[in-house]
Task: inverse folding
């Protein structure tokens, strides 16, 4: 095959036919022929190249995807999306007592701009209900509101 005509399907088909005529047993397709077939994908549809060159669909698709000549198949994209959707997000479960341990509060704690320190909490239930709160850092108040939302 000429380098300036990598898109000549008939030439590549003839190369494959010649190789198949002289191969011994179940010899693997040479890399040079695979490369020629993959180069054709820039000029011809996948199914046409596969059919004309009598190639295994899975092998051609994998080699083309590795070389960036072909976008991943819909089934591959769908499998990856399913795997992502199956993985559950990690949540950190904390009680007010856990917060008290991690947020040491002292009597002489400085207040920013003279205002009370607040924390922001956003809850979301499986049904889509959301509760967003900005509260003063009073652990008993936070715990009672959290419990009320979760039980509702």
Result:
């Amino acid at each position: 095959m000429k380098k300036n005509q990598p898109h000549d399907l008939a030439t590549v088909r003839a190369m494959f036919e010649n190789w198949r005529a002289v191969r011994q047993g179940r010899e693997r397709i040479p890399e040079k022929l695979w490369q020629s077939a993959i180069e054709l994908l820039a000029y011809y549809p996948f199914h046409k190249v596969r059919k004309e060159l009598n190639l295994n669909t899975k092998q051609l698709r994998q080699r083309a995807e590795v070389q960036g000549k072909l976008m991943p198949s819909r089934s591959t994209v769908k499998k990856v999306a399913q795997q992502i959707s199956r993985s559950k997000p990690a949540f950190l479960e904390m009680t007010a007592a856990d917060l008290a341990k991690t947020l040491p509060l002292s009597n002489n704690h400085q207040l920013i701009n003279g205002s009370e320190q607040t924390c922001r909490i956003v809850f979301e239930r499986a049904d889509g209900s959301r509760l967003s709160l900005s509260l003063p850092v009073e652990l008993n108040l936070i715990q009672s509101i959290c419990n009320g939302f979760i039980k509702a």
Remarks:
- Residues 9-22 form the longest helix (14 residues).
- Confidence is low (pLDDT under 50) at residues 103-114.
- The beta strands are 118-124, 130-136.
